[in-house]
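In the previous chapter we treated chains in isolation. Here, by contrast, the input contains two separate entities that must be folded as one system, with a combined length of 541 residues.
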Amino acid sequence: MMTWLMITKYFQNMKWQPSLSLEIVAPAAVGLLALFGWEMGVRLTDTPPYLLPGPILILQTLLKDWPILFPALLTTLKITILAFVAATTSGLLIAVLMAQSKWIEKSLYPYAIVLQTIPLAAIAPLIIIWLRNSVLLALVICAWIAALFPIISNTTFGLNSADPSLRDMFRLYKASRWQTLRYLRLPSALPYFLAGLRISGGLALIGAVVAEFVAGSGGTNSGIAYQILMAGYNLEIPRMFAALLLVTILGIIIFVVLATTSAALLSGWHESSLPRDR
Amino acid sequence: MTWQPVMTLTQGNKTFENGLVALQDVDLSINQAEFVSLVGPSGCGKSTLLRIVAGLSALSSGTLVWGEGDYQPEIAFVFQEPALMPWARVKDNVQLPLRLGGILHKKAEAMVADALRLVGLENFKNAYPRQLSGGMKMRTSIARALVTSPQVLLMDEPFGALDDITRTKLNNDLLALWSQQRWTVLFVTHNIYEAVYLSERVVVMAASPGRIVAEILIDEPMPRTDGFRTSVAYSHYCCQVAEALSAAMLGETVPLKREAASG
């Protein structure tokens, strides 16, 4: 509730300025120029669409195939969100547990690193075989593995980064372990945790897409990766690009939502969210 | 003034795990409502001594006894840095010790308001630490220390990072508050002038190993006024502390002196 209030207040305080700043115009101009060059290159060289479709054809295909691609994207989004929520919750709990003692941290941290280093494409088939009765759960677990480590790593680092003088002060006033966690360590870890979330959001999406590729399952609940895979098999390259465009846009939306939430939660006090003099 | 020891440290020794002897055979007694400063070169164990008194660090050997019956009074600590929680507003920073002590919000609010009034920050209670100047941050830190109405106030170079003007102002404010509240104060500083101006007694420490080499009584009426800063007596006391400090820094063996200088 408190978090929601902070986010609402942040948006109320935001002043949307319609001015076209250099930060928007410059990358937009580069992007448009690149798209124009791409389209012209394809047309002038008469490149067949099964090798490289132009941006206009991709856009037309996206609109035409929207009834197929959008539900697939929603399926991937569902897997991503479930995995992200699971990774956030479990990552935070594991980090809090590890921050309770150096022994617990030393005992658990290597396994967190193992999760990070195992190639997802290698472990995904196993998970899918083990959970063959629930493909959705298997895909969520694969995406969860991909998204978990940054949250554990960042949050643990943040929990251990509380100001030593403040720690002393909590000791001086005989704060309980719970009070120290609630009033000092968790707020100190918040910026690190939020940075971890921003990385994890993207990784959850990548994890979901990779797992869908490996699973290769079709049907009504197939995800966007399956559409990319099928489009590739059928040499429907414009549809493949359209699906890729949707995944990219989804990735950007996830990042923007998490970055905005992060800025709202840190606004007013943390260096990263304060305006700088130029 | 009651000259009753509120704290007595006898033969205090502190050796760190790496073998460094931080304190050796330190004897220090502080009387109730006394303002004592610890002065010494870097690494002489001033802050270690303060942390031991606060209970944040343990003695390797020796005894620390509190008043009569070893009843530990309410202690507050002001750190070298303001050590404020950047995510919390001034009022919430000040309220923290009360929150940790389980004091109800309504009662705590009144106590926070009183503490902020004492340090002149009542109009900044809703500000975040980043919106405050260095001096105001330190005032907030002092308000947080005062909010529990402590009997003993431990201050570890609280004004070390401030400019001279702000430091002088805060010195005067601290003395004015001390005159009202009459806490027992143990004040660590590098600054001889500050130590002499604030204290009733200046304890000079030497390094390697950390030990007390001189105790100088500043026998002038409290609270001090700006006139004291320009007096002959003040210069005399400063010279005396400086001499003891120079000897300590040169590593000369100085027999422990406990004296009242003739101002």
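Chain A has a mean pLDDT of 89. The CA atoms of residues 32 and 266 of chain A lie 34 Å apart. Compare these points with the single-chain example from earlier in the chapter.
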